[in-house]
Amino acid sequence: MAQTDKGLPPCILVFLVFFLATLAYKVSAVDGEPYQYTKEIVEIEINGSINPSTVDYIRTALLEAQQRNARALLILMDTPGGLLNSTKDIVKILLNSEVPIIVYVYPRGATATSAGVFITLSAHVAAMSPGTSIGAAHPVMLGRDQKGSGKAKEKDNKSSDVMDEKIENFASSFIESIARERGRNAKWAVESVRKSASVTADEALRNKVVDIISPDIPSLLSEIDGKEVKIGDRNVSLETAGARTQRLEMSLRQKVVNILSTPDIAFLLLSLGSLGIFLEFYNPGMIFPGVAGLISLLVGFVSLQILPFNYAGLILLFVAMALLISEVYVVSYGLLSLAALACLVFGGLLLFDTPDSDLGVSKGVIAAVAVTIGLLSVFIVYLGMKSFQVPVQGGFEGMVGQHGEVVSWSHRSGKVFIGGEYWEATGEREFSPGEKIKVIESTGELTVKISAFKGEG
How far is the C-alpha of 254 from the C-alpha of 52, rounded, in Å? Predict the structure, then answer.
């Protein structure tokens, strides 16, 4: 008997049709428009040096913009420069962003210096506020004027020149590739590295370094509305007019790292830590200066884990601390303190002199720390010299001038009671037991010379 094929049950057929229709809709949505924009623009502000916390801040903001399907990420910038590695990381993030990036040098008086030039040129839209400037992207290397003589100096200068040339060539090619990728003035970009070229906002617009000059954020968003930018392999028309900006602040961790990434803060922590240890050695048992100094040193070392530093500068700071501590135990009349101050100043200047950073400790901070430690050293030397003028208050040598009374006496010598102790004594005349006396000389062999004393003992 033959079997008839009844086919699939109706419920299964309905489920398959629904599943295939849903899948087809998803595929068409992905192929048609990969990024659905909302009416928001995520806004962040970079006001300071470029460091690892800045990289994390921008990466976090970009992720937030992607999650919100924001129309763009707006970066308000005012920076003196920063770390080369952090700059490269930020440029990489901006060039590969799926969200339109707007870098706005803002407010009036702000600058996009050094690392700021690389970041501004990397944006899809580069804008400036009136009264701002951009440029001077040449890598800064401090402390290149090395002192020395003969072949050693010539060798050091030659090695430094080779290193500077390598860094300059890399920075030039790097910024040129960024400018060409974004269709900006590559020639000026190279000059900003090789010749430290710097221009105002009007000049930057005229030289096609930036795209627009705008007085404020609402005006900027209105003026760039409809502008086409390249996101990956496709062109996207910006829809920024009327969009609301959502400010994203740094997290607590990012703020702490940002503070510790400041060379001035790192130098102050190391200097204050050294000062605290010095005070603890000067007056053991104070506890607070020693503990505070140790904590400052540890936090300062955390800063050195973030910032690229020069070992020569760090060694000079350690030598300065050792010389200050030696001042407590060695009578040098301030010579060790002067040497410590010299090491402190040179150490501060060299501490962040590296190819990976164009930042350094400001001379004002170095001067303030040097003056503070110098005044403290002068005060300690003054106390030390004054202590030599204070009469001896204890021991056998300190007996001169003390009062007592005669216990027994015979033939111009006898025993006296002074300061709770019995002493052998000599005198120019005979004394009677109980007579008040005064020590006028310590004659050696634990014997004192006395005279009569008329008054209250």
Answer: 9
C-alpha span between 87 and 122 (Å, rounded): 11
**Are the C-beta atoms of 309 and 343 separated by less than 8 Å?**
no
Instruction: Provide the pLDDT for residue 390.
Output: 57
Q: Are 132 and 109 in contact (CB under 8 A)?
A: yes
Spatial distance between the Cα atoms of 150 and 191, rounded to a whole number of angstroms: 35
- φ/ψ (deg, to 5) at 157: -65, -40
| CA-to-CA separations, 399 to 41, 64, 427, 444, 449, in angstroms, rounded | 85, 81, 15, 11, 10
Dihedral (C-alpha) 323, 387, 283, 267: value to the nearest 10 degrees? -40
Helix H, strand E, coil C: the string for 169-205 is HHHHHHHHHHHHHCCCCHHHHHHHHHCCCEEEHHHHH
Euclidean distance between CA atoms 89 and 415, whole angstroms: 88
| CA dist., res. 185 & res. 301, Å (int) | 41
Q: Please name which of 95, 57, 30, 2 lies closest in space to residue 256, comparing C-alpha atoms.
A: 57
CB 285: neighbour CB atoms within 10 A?
Answer: 6
Question: What are the structure tokens assigned to 32, written together?
Answer: 């048609």
Q: Which residues of the chain have pLDDT under 70?
A: 1-38, 140-163, 384, 387-398, 444-448, 454-457
Kind and range of the H or E run holding 245: strand 244-247
Is residue 439 within 8 A of residue 449, CB to CB? The reply is yes
Domains defined for the chain, CATH in brackets: 33-250 (3.90.226.10), 262-387 (no CATH), 397-452 (2.40.50.140)
